[in-house]
């Protein structure tokens, strides 16, 4: 092979077949040929691998486009034979483009000699394809299009519809993330009042590690007819709330569409359960239908903020005193993105939301990751007391995903020191959902629900506060078994976010952050929102709740109990290996009442308790 003879390539003054042949002269563009090069590295010429094809030689298509569109290197002609250049348009990669160009030319000639619509129509089509193929060749953003003009679009189309293909054609009952097809199906069936039974037997591998079950009784109890409720509100609460044991988890107006908020709230009203506003504010859509509201405020203090973004006590008081608001909740963190403020992508910040939140239109609305109303555990407790007072004595509490154990224990110490106790704490699991969050946060930050929940439950037992503080739990809870298990580990009630989204018709397409929700659940696009018909979907919300609570009542009765609050760790077992099964009572041992105050030796708590201080969240050096 001739060596490069010139250092700087001349610029083409024109191009034409002859010129192109000269330029591309001796090249062999086939991948086989690239692998035949003397001294070619292993894998050279294979797309995606590094070798002479891509690096120390050149990319054939780059050569073609360079020659076609201007910057030529005349020494290419010296390298390969003219035959190979002539065959280039007929190589597999370019054949579609070549065919389109040839057909376009043929149609042009045909039109010239015998004009007719029968020729004009296909000509327009092929001319459009020819333009697309040529643009593919010269554009510089997508390597695969430069190399496979026209045909590479098939790849992009398939990539686009890959989730649908997987979901509709390939997924088994147990496949699908974050929620398997099976789990979604049970929600859809209950929401639509369709048959929710399964034939033939379990599809779970009951001998696989991780399999869990509830112990049934030889003397089942009658199934309770009444929906199970619990009373939330400690001794300092003037207006305790009788809550359902299953409620709608926090999801903001903004993350969800107005119609979704309306349907959730109407369903909650009909079923006598609660609807958490999420941190996006207590909006007009929450108020329309009168369902019970838990008003959540986050670090953005939406619906109760001053112009500078700080908390406005007057606005909070005005909203919290509404009869519809049954509890007030301070959001510290959420499992899907703990330590990160709320995120509403700019695409969803419409004029209406911008006005409601007091932020610019179309710009990402990111709440601060920390609150301005407190800086220490003691101040946190004081703010909870403020919220309770401003709301007129309604249950006040906070929601968090557990991070550093000593920080939660610091809050426990603050409770003991100040004598201010929240009425409730909602523990959110790492596995919980979100409208939008960074991948690293959704995948790697925060304690999963079962560990976090059991930790909080035991910490409150350890400071003798468990009887005055109710615990809510959230994180992938959609079935009656999920609720029962959470209640056995310490929850008094459960919340579900995505479960209720499925009831609204969500198909888990996971494009909530793009404002292109196909079902109208999580979009601010007015046309897409109409897909969600409020009267129909509110019935489904109601049905899903009712059927799930009824299924829970059946489970509880089968375990020989009268109320889900009677469930304890001893009622559940988990296979921890192929040969070993452990009771939840062994896996999640319980502290004794007051054990933290007395000085515990339990390794899960002892050093974290020593490190915790009611005066700061900072990590303290461990006692020597
Ligand atoms: C669309 C969407 C929006 C959410 N918005 C909030 C929010 O504003 N505040 C909050 O505390 N949690 C929010 N969450 C988290 C849920 O309230 C809950 O903590 C978590 O999703 C529970 O998991 P689940 O979806 O598996 O039920 C949101 C979740 C989703 C799916
Ligand atoms: S259908 Fe898709 S985009 Fe809409 S709420 Fe469900 S997961 Fe989000």
Brief description of this entry?
The protein has 624 residues and is of the alpha/beta class. The chain contains 24 helices and 15 strands.
Kindly list the characteristics that best describe this protein:
624 residues; alpha/beta; TIM Barrel; 8-stranded parallel beta sheet; 3-stranded antiparallel beta sheet; 24 helices; 10% strand; globular; disordered N terminus; binds flavin mononucleotide; binds iron/sulfur cluster
Description:
Helix 10 crosses helix 21, helix 14 crosses helix 15 and helix 18 packs across helix 21. The N and C termini lie far apart (75 Å). The protein folds into three domains: 74 residues, no CATH class; 70 residues, no CATH class; 383 residues, Alpha-Beta Barrel (TIM Barrel). It is 39% helix and 10% strand. The N terminus is likely disordered. The strands form four sheets. An eight-stranded parallel β-sheet has the order 4-13-12-11-10-7-6-5. The chain has a three-stranded antiparallel β-sheet with strand order 1-14-15. With 624 residues, it is an alpha/beta fold. Bound molecules: flavin mononucleotide and iron/sulfur cluster. Flavin mononucleotide binds next to helix 19.
């Amino acid at each position: 092979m001739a060596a490069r003879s010139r250092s700087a390539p001349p610029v083409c003054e024109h191009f034409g077949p002859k010129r192109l042949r000269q330029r591309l002269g001796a090249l062999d563009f086939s991948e086989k040929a690239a692998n035949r090069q003397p001294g070619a590295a292993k894998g050279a010429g294979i797309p995606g691998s590094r070798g002479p094809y891509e690096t120390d030689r050149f990319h054939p298509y780059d050569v073609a486009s360079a020659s076609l569109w201007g910057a030529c290197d005349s020494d290419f002609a010296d390298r390969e034979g003219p035959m190979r250049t002539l065959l280039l348009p007929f190589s597999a990669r370019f054949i579609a483009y070549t065919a389109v160009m040839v057909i376009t030319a043929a149609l042009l000639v045909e039109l010239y000699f015998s004009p007719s619509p029968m020729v004009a129509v296909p000509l327009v089509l092929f001319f459009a394809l020819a333009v697309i193929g040529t643009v593919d060749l010269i554009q510089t953003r997508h390597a695969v299009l430069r190399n496979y003009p026209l045909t590479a679009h098939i790849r992009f189309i398939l990539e686009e519809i890959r989730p649908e293909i997987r979901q509709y054609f390939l997924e088994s009952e147990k496949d699908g993330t974050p929620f398997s097809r099976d789990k979604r199906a049970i929600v859809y069936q209950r929401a639509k009042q369709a048959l929710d039974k399964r034939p033939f037997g379990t599809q779970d591998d009951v001998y696989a590690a991780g399999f869990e079950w509830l112990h049934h009784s030889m003397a089942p109890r009658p199934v309770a007819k009444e929906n199970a409720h619990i009373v939330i509100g400690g001794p300092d609460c003037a207006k305790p709330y009788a809550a359902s044991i299953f409620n709608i988890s926090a999801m903001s107006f903004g993350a969800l569409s107005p119609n979704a908020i309306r349907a959730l709230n109407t369903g909650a009203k009909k079923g006598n359960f609660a609807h958490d506003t999420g941190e996006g504010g207590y909006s007009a859509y929450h108020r329309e239908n009168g369902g019970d509201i838990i008003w959540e405020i986050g670090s953005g203090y939406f619906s109760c903020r001053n112009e500078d973004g700080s908390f406005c006590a007057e606005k909070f008081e005005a909203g919290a005193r509404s009869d519809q608001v049954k509890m007030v909740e301070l959001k510290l963190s959420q499992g899907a993105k703990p330590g990160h403020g709320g995120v509403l992508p700019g695409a969803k910040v419409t004029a209406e939301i911008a006005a409601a939140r007091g932020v610019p239109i179309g710009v990402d609305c990111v709440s601060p990751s920390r609150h301005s109303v407190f800086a220490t555990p003691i101040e946190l407790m004081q703010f909870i007391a403020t919220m309770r007072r401003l709301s007129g004595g309604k249950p006040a509490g906070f929601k968090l995903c557990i991070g550093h154990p000593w920080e939660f224990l610091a809050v426990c110490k603050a409770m003991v020191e100040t004598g201010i106790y929240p009425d409730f704490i909602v523990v959110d699991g790492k596995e919980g959902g979100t409208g939008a969050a960074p991948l690293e946060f959704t995948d790697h930050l925060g304690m999963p629900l079962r560990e976090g929940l059991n930790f909080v439950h035991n910490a409150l037992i350890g400071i003798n506060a468990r009887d005055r503080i109710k615990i809510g739990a959230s994180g992938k809870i959609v079935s009656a078994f999920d609720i029962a298990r959470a209640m056995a580990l310490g929850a008094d009630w459960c919340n579900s976010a995505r479960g209720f989204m499925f009831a609204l018709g969500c198909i888990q397409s996971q494009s909530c952050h793009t404002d292109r929700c196909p079902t109208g659940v999580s979009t601010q696009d007015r046309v897409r929102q109409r897909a969600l018909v409020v009267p129909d979907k509110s019935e489904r919300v109601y049905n899903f709740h009712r059927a799930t609570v009824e299924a829970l009542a059946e489970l509880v009765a089968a375990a020989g109990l009268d109320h889900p609050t009677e469930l304890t760790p001893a009622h559940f077992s988990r296979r921890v290996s192929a040969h070993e099964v452990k009771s939840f009572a062994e896996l999640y041992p319980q502290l004794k009442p007051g054990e933290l105050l007395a000085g515990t030796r339990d390794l899960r708590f002892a050093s974290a308790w020593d490190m915790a201080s009611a005066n700061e969240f900072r990590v303290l050096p461990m006692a020597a």
